[in-house]
Amino acid sequence: MYRTPDHEEVQQVAEQFGMRLTAAEAEVFARHIGETLTEMDDFVQSRIEEPAPPRFPGPRSPGHRPGPEDDPYNAWTWKCEIPGAESGLLAGKTVSFKDHTAVAGMPLTFGSFALEGLVPDYDATVVQRSLEAGATVVGKNVMNGLSGGFGFGGGIGDYGRPTNPHSPDHLTGGSSSGSAAALASGQVDISFGGDQGGSIRIPASWTGTVGHKPTFGLVSHFGIGFGSDQSIDYTGPMTMTVADAAAALEATAGYDGFDPRQGRQVPDRYDATSRLTDGIDGLRIGILTEGFAGATVEVDSSVREAVEIFAKLGATISEVSVPEHATIGRAQTALMAEGGLAVRNAGFFGAWSRTWYPSDTIAAVNRVWASHQELLDPRALANQMAGVFSKRFWSGRVYAKAQNVRSSFIAAYDRALSEVDVLVMPTTITQAPRYEQPADRTAAVELAMKGSITYSAVANTRPFNYTGHPALALPCEKRNGLPVSIQLVGRMFEDDLLLRAAWNFAETAPFAAYTAIDA
Description:
Keywords: Hydrolase, Transferase. The chain is an alpha/beta fold. The protein folds into two domains: 7-45, no CATH class; 68-279 and 329-388 and 426-513, Alpha-Beta Complex (Amidase signature (AS) enzymes). Helices cover 37% and strands 13% of the residues. It has 16 helices and eleven strands. An eleven-stranded mixed β-sheet has the order 1-3-2-4-6-5-10-11-9-7-8, sandwiched between helices. α3 (125-132) links the parallel β2 and β3 (136-141).
């Protein structure tokens, strides 16, 4: 319930804007603000009809939170069974979603206890389209979220640590940690993750799964939130097979009108499967020199051996250099601080666009940000605080430059991709690191802030969040019991070519011969 603020409250708010009001001036402001708030309250309470929230029709069972006996890898925040259409591209497939994705009637926590009780009445576009394509939705997966997480070795997170099915003592990677664990342990066919700097591809790399970050805008982000700058945030399928990744992309990709980030260059529908099994004879593959910087011996040799498999399939191989690959991370760092702060200030699903706004979700997250910040991820808070100081010291120039120079980095990769069809490099330059339990709360906060694991993990992934090029993580083989992954990167909207190359490789490579949790 609102109330008219008194003059002292008005003075306090004015000081946040850098103004000092006298008591008399504040009284004038308070009267005007009170009139405005009264009009707002009348509007909120009015019975103006709003459009029905977008969702797939039909009954839904309430589902349940699984116990340890039903969730041995701590992969799930919620399990359910929502049947889709009787036929379609995903008929017979089970699908789950990282718990930053709205599924009508199912809890949505964004990885935070503070948001328990939030149950949206709408479906994210990827959920609705999966159900329309015949999939059965079977639950929501644990994630690194608004309260931190354990995917990168952190010691703070409300829903615990998803364990790596290949080796429980090693990390799953984040932020789509639970999705990767559920897939690698054979509990689901397809899981849609989220990727802000590699958060689909890193867990795919460390758990031996397929992870696809589509071209920017190709898959609608409506109904999905994370708190990152919207221009680097993606959703995409994680799977155990390339064929499932292609089918999931085709079922969900395309323009939908709810995601304001989708330009009209995004097609209404996307064909990812009709040429999937065509050969790759003559495909030009470029080994990105800078993508191997800092790679372990095991990762370096495994990825180079994987490239030889492509050569045996008829691809031509060459070395390619993109010097900007080594410096692009600074641009994204500059973007993320003020970008994350802007999301907080504007509302969890942004502003300014003519679309459908999930008001209950926006209000719930805003209340948590306003009243329960101590319960949330210290690293995310530090990033938003850096955004405050960035604006204070540079008056918005940092963010503006980070957006404006993006085209030059895109052009650098595009030049390389004019000479080759696909760039290859390790997805991550290390295999899954071992998890180390922090000794106390201070050590856990230090772990949350520490970047050594995170920065090495994102070295080859986050550049393509910033540029928008499609990128696909593909398992090569196991070394010392842990997976190694190769990343394929292509031209904008040529996701189908990456999938075709990956399918041919997967049919040939040693990795195809073992199940996910075999040693």
